[in-house]
Amino acid sequence: MTKYRLPKTCSPDPIPDHTALLIANGDLRDSANATCWEAQQQLEADAAEALASLGWTLKRAHDEQPSEFGPHGFINSQKRGREVFNGIHPDAPLVVAEAVWQYSHHVLPGLLRHRGPILILANWSGTWPGLVGALNLRGSLTKAGRDYALLWGESFSDEHFRGKLKQWCDTGTITHDTSHVTELDFKELPADERQLGESLAAELRQTPAILGVFDEGCMGMFNAIIPDHLLNPLGVFKERLSQSALYFAMTQVSDDEAQVARDWYDDSGITFETGSNEAEHLTDAQILQQCKMYIAAVRIADEFGCDAIGIQYQQGLKDLAPASDLVEGTLNCSIRPPVTLKNADGTSGAVIRDGEPVTHFNEVDECAGLDGLITQRVWSAMGMQPDNTLHDLRWGDPDRSGTTDEYVWVFEISGSVPPTHFADGWKGATSERQPAMYFRLGGGTIKGISKPGECVWSRIFIQDGALHMDIGRCKAIELPLAETQRRWDATTSQWPIMHAVTYGVSRDQMMARHQSNHIQLVYADPPDDADAADRALSAKAAMAAALGIVVHVCGTGKDGA
After folding, report:
1. Which of 100, 314, 465, 524 lies at a CB distance of 3.0 to 4.6 Å from 36, suitable for a disulfide?
2. How many CA atoms lie within 13 A of 480 on its CB side?
3. pTM score, two decimals?
4. Domain 19-171 class?
5. Tell me: the pLDDT tens digits for 458-496?
6. Nearest to 96 by CA among 150, 33, 168
7. Strand blocks (E) in 187-346
């Protein structure tokens, strides 16, 4: 008989009753992990105390690890996640505690094989965006078909919080209020908007659209990747592009062309807050590199016929070039520096998509890309400005200025917000250097305050092997500058911000349902026209439904209808 060396397998020891194991998933970048470690330790201590009050013990499943930036206890790679899960009994109750942004793919291999109950636990902080990371992990597990529970809160000693935690301890699940969600009744949509949506869907199927994807799977967002077999039947196909091709195309843009774009920005009224220290300040050289990326991206979109494009933002290019924020917001803006075709002899040709946005989806979030594509077609067909963006569902807090009694969300994202969303357009925008913790090579954002107005929000996600869309209405409101600054200081002050009030959806209902860290936003045109926003929502929902997306209407219109 031939003797083979058979692999050895073993299962970790079971854990005692009323004990849960804790894992802390983190960033790929240890500079961020080390900075955020103190906040994570506080969250873990609060979680242990809350579980102890219910007679449970919370035990950490992995130790601190050294890094060049300092020790931390986060899982910082898929490799590390595999090591950690090899030591976890598959039936153990598991708490994924998140005080920071996390890359979901670090832990997905372990979570999808885990048999025990899973609780995603998030703090409620703008500074330490655990709820953003938790929403991304939630969307990823939903896509994968893995059961889980989600819990969040400002104070883990709160009676309501501990009641929900006890529910998980007793049953392995948590029930939240999602009564604000109603499945779309296609036949009940207004006839004109229903017809428009159906016609746009038929047009898309007849002449397919192309999403230009500059490398897939940014920042661990498994939930942001749409498989081809779900995307193609809609009439949407991916052009798989490379970040290296984008970088090479940047090298083919001349300094003179970049300077022309920079001059356009200066003439538009945007304020660049520059300095001379590359490591700490936004510099003129960084801005010129961003101008080259913008020109290169527009030309590649034109060359490949892309109806929308997505740049990685964080991974890959961050080691070669400044951040893409300025680029992304400019692409999504219908008022932007003109980019001409480059003829074979080096001369300039026609202006590419003059007066139109080149729809861009931040962080290569393909769900946002599909949503942006639908939005662009519906709004354009209705004669409305189609400039749209995703935001992070970053944080929320009651207004402390006395302006409103309504709950006010902070929608915020570093890239992709068009200045047409600001009251004074480009003149209302500033550009500040991205934090060095994330971007060694710098680069400027497009910072501003979103103008008051009626908006449609939405999110496409994958559940039970099908595409779904949640869609609802909200308004952006104006708050005093001091209150805006408080919210900026509590989050990331370099980024654009929207003060958002959702119609018919409470804070906890939004958290109970939303399947991503991202939320898509677009204004009515004119912005104060609530009826136009309602009609546009109907047309967008109709187009999505006609394409075969399962549409859910969340909340109400402005007047509660």
Report:
1. 100
2. 9
3. 0.96
4. alpha beta
5. 999 999 999 999 999 999 999 999 999 999 999 999 999
6. 150
7. 209-214, 236-241, 271-272, 308-310, 340-342
